[in-house]
Design brief:
Length: about 475
């Protein structure tokens, strides 16, 4: 199909005031939205675990360096692309590619990001459904005095029941669609202004419970002791990869949110705020979770869903007041997943509205239904299709590998190359006029040389580790 010619955004849009979808009410709303997109299941469990297993504070230090040298430079570039295009990632890249006089193949940046976001949403909703289910199970007393075996039975029964999984997956998808239907100001903006402060409040409440009831000293030591001997090159690569993925880069969300960003907001400072809050949530989650885990001598910290859905329920169920705070924990997990999920569907919704004449309701019904349908494959991979594999993966594992290890790093790499090497320097500078020449020069040098190399290493090593 021939590539249609796209005109520049309207005068209002070009001036950065607002596109056809509206704009965030303030810079702080954008910070909350981008933080909500970045904060997800990985922050609540994965980051604290990999930090503790890779030298604690030593890993955190390396991770922060990677955030500064890999994550944030690419995030600035992605936000800048969104704000300059003032459209969905697909149409923004079409316009920006034409503006730069480049081949239409670079439009793939938008298509890759939007497609990856929908694919991630398909299985993300399944896992988030587990958290919804566990809110009720924890509050009803199912885990009161439970052993690890008993908790394992509850989790196993959930995974073995397609009907139960589909029910909770459907509830979570409906919650996600309900927010996005409201649009940028009445839906997304209102949601993030409520969800993100609530998430921080719940984290602080859980942290207080951990200090009172858990083994806080041991949990703190596990997360922050500087054990450089435990930090291997594999750990450094893991820090680099997590620094990239934790900011929701390469999945269209940040570019779409950037399109709604006020023109007067400084992109560099805004991205720094998002990176700080994202890391803060991860550290607070670790300080809240691990003292609870260590308070139960029969539980050892480990990775994966088994710890969140088996070990933690046992720990909460055997502590005074644990059922209440365990329920709060799974509400926290659900909120983190919810704030991320709305950012995964929004880029595709924006594209259908712009290019195909959909309204928000019909676009959400179509895309939500599509993601829900694809998610059935992930549901069945835990039971009926458990023995069905593709390239050695079940359906859920294949979707996770394809998105996180292939599509996201490739999109991030292309963004760095496009902005760092191919966009006209004056166009890039015009979007970052508030930054000093020294900061701009340093950022552009890192984006051109450091970030692409680092993302390429993450991509190659991720694929190599999977198939070696």
């Amino acid at each position: 199909m021939a590539e249609e010619q796209l005109t520049a955004p309207s005068s209002d849009e070009a001036s950065g005031k607002r596109g056809i979808h509206g704009a965030w009410s303030s810079r702080w709303t954008f910070v909350m939205a981008a933080t909500g997109s970045a904060v997800g299941l990985g922050n609540i469990w994965k980051f604290p675990y990999i930090a503790g297993e890779n030298g604690g504070g030593a890993f955190v230090l390396v991770y922060l360096i990677c955030i500064l040298l890999v994550g944030m430079p690419v995030m600035v570039a992605e936000v800048m692309l969104g704000r300059r295009g003032r459209q969905s990632p697909i149409n923004a890249m079409r316009y920006l590619t034409q503006e730069a006089g480049l081949h239409g193949a670079w439009n793939a940046i938008g298509w890759l990001g939007v497609t990856a976001g929908l694919m991630i949403l398909s299985y993300y909703a399944v896992i988030a459904g587990w958290a919804l289910y566990y809110i009720g199970q924890m509050a009803s007393g199912t885990f009161q005095g439970a052993s690890a075996d008993q908790a394992g039975v509850v989790f196993g029964q959930l995974l073995s029941s397609p009907k139960e999984l589909i029910f909770w997956q459907s509830i979570f998808m409906l919650l996600t669609m309900a927010v996005v239907v409201g649009g940028v100001t009445r839906g997304l903006g209102v949601a993030v202004r409520i969800l993100m402060p609530l998430l921080f409040v719940l984290l602080v409440i859980l942290l207080g419970f951990s200090i009172q009831r858990g083994d806080f000293a041991r949990g703190f030591s596990f997360l922050f002791s500087f054990n450089f001997e435990a930090l291997t090159w594999a750990g450094v690569l893991e820090a680099m990869g997590h620094a990239f993925f934790t900011l929701s880069l390469g999945m269209g969300a940040i570019m779409a949110y950037g399109a709604y960003m006020p023109d007067h907001a400084r992109i560099g400072r805004t991205v720094l705020a998002v990176g700080f809050l994202d890391t803060l949530v991860a550290l607070l989650a670790g300080l809240a979770i691990f003292p609870i885990v260590f308070a139960n001598p029969t539980i050892e910290p480990g990775a994966g869903p088994g710890l969140m859905f088996v070990s933690l329920p046992v720990a909460f169920g055997n502590m005074a007041g644990g059922l209440l705070f365990g329920s709060i924990f799974f509400v926290l997990v659900t909120l983190a997943a919810w704030s991320s999920a709305i950012s995964l569907i929004e880029p595709a919704v924006a594209f259908l509205i712009e290019s195909k004449g959909f309204n928000r309701i019909t676009a959400n019904l179509l895309l939500g239904g599509l993601a829900w349908s694809v998610g059935l494959g992930s549901v069945l991979s835990f039971n009926v299709w458990a023995d069905v594999t593709l390239a050695g993966f079940n359906f859920f594992e294949f979707m996770d590998f394809l998105t996180s290890s292939v599509m996201l790093p490739l999109t991030g790499l292309f963004i760095a190359l496009f902005v760092g090497w191919l966009m006209k320097p004056e166009a890039v500078r015009s979007e970052l006029m508030d930054e000093s020449s020294g900061v701009f020069t340093a950022w552009r040098w890192i984006l051109r040389y450091i970030s692409p190399a680092a993302v390429l290493v993450v991509f190659v090593m991720g694929v190599y580790k999977t198939f070696s």
